[in-house]
Amino acid sequence: MSEHTNTADHDPHATIALPPPDRDISSREDIAIFVTDFYRDVAMDDLLGPIFDAEHVHWAQHVDKLTDFWAWQLFGERGYEGNPLLAHVPIDAKHPFSDAHFARWLEMFTTTIDLHYVGPTAQTAKQRAAKMASAMQRLLHGRSASADHPITPYLTTR
Question: What is the pTM assigned to this prediction?
């Protein structure tokens, strides 16, 4: 969430900007914060929210599973079980994901990270999200990666 309502003005449309982030993602708790905020916004999004509504997502379980996923992606913590690419195949069959869905998901993810964190691990999270969105889009739409798409190694230090 990028803005908070300024209740001092009693204007429901008045907002105040949050200060820029001054720290990087450094713990599982940090991951839980961005996952929770991100999916709260996704659930309310006009484009993405209806897909989650139709799938009757159990939010507490979903957030826990995705916190495990990002802890694995960013810190190498074991605990995530599953295949996020294949998990979305049956959902896409019922509610086809368009290029706009992938773009919106990535835009919201990047915005959420940028609102909370700055640093190499935050950058890695955004890069891995872009890679995941691209891979899922190729899988679900039956496309191959272009030969001119660079492969970037992702290395983080803790």
Answer: 0.77
Domains of the chain with bracketed CATH: 22-141 (1.10.490.10)
Residues 6+ apart with CB under 8 A from 17: 2, 3
| pLDDT single digits (tens) 63-75 | 999 999 999 999 9
Alpha-helix residue ranges (DSSP H) falling in the chain: 28-44, 49-55, 59-75, 84-87, 89-94, 99-116, 120-141
Structure tokens at 150: 């660079």
* pLDDT beyond 50 at 151: no
Q: What is the distance between the alpha carbons of residues 121 and 109, in angstroms, rounded to a whole number?
A: 14
**Tokens coding 125:** 């999270």
Name the one residue in this structure whose structure tokens are 């999004």.
45
